[in-house]
Amino acid sequence: MTDTAETADTAAPQSGAMRLRELVFGAACAAAVRAAARLGVADALGDAPMTPEDLAAAVKTEPRPLARLLRALSSYGVFEELPDGRFAHTDMSRMLRVDAPNSLHYIALWCTEPWTWQAWPRLDDAVRSGRNIFPELYGKEFFDYLQDDARDSAHVFDRAMTHSSRQSAQDIAELLDLTGVGHVADVGGGQGHVLAALLEKHSGVHGTLLDLPKVVAGADPRLRAGGELADRVRLVGGDCREAIPVAADMYIIKNILEWDDDSTRRTLRNIVGAAAPGARVVVIENLVDDTPSMRFTTSMDLMLLLNVGGQKHTRRSLTGLMAEAGLVVGDVTPVNPYLHALHGVVGS
Q: What pLDDT score was predicted for residue 162?
């Protein structure tokens, strides 16, 4: 049976007024996804359709409000309401399961954390000033707030970033050709999922993971002492905006050039300063002007403006910053629907 949302779309074209009404109620859709994730509805629903009563018993809710929640989500293709009143999984609802290989459970929670509901109404102020509004809301910068006052939210952030990194790591490992590369540096690489995927695929390559000391302390177990890749890895604690004490044949920078342009310039220049001429630099980012996921990517761009004053880049702005730092910019290739790899070489 076709999903309800798809049926509605093909049955009659929406008017501009109806579409705008839906958009201004977008918070209801986001809240419904968050509620379903927090209640564990997708995890409780198996392969066979279930009645609202059975699902309510499984997740310890009242049946009628749960049916209303599921009907709202079904209109977007998240779950499917059957003619007999039971509900079944769709491709999207399965991704809310914690154990799904392509799970978006923690991403759904992260994008709808409590602080987001306070920040979004201030978007006009951020647009006027060009600055993040988070210190005005909470009296401190965003990551300080997570660490000091919102540890549950910090945990969700860590889980969301870990899931996202693991999923994209395999795509990146499949994309990159490491011919002639003996040493690869993962700059600001978090727990090192990308580096681990590359080293697993290329047994003759060594690697360095560079990130803040507290981050590399929690690196992927495969990279730490006793791990199966540990003898080919060096873990280095440091801030890439200050220095990059790593000589490598290839440098990978994924999803960290989201600060102000000055910080991005310093990071890229630090790489150029540490690398030998001819070293390869691969910048992997979400672009806001060249992607099939424009709505998601531009939404992340606005969230970065709100919480840290950062931004996602256009192809032109990022290649311009790379060239300004001394890189000869080559191809720009898609990694997956959300990410692009911008390939550069350190000039002579």
A: 87
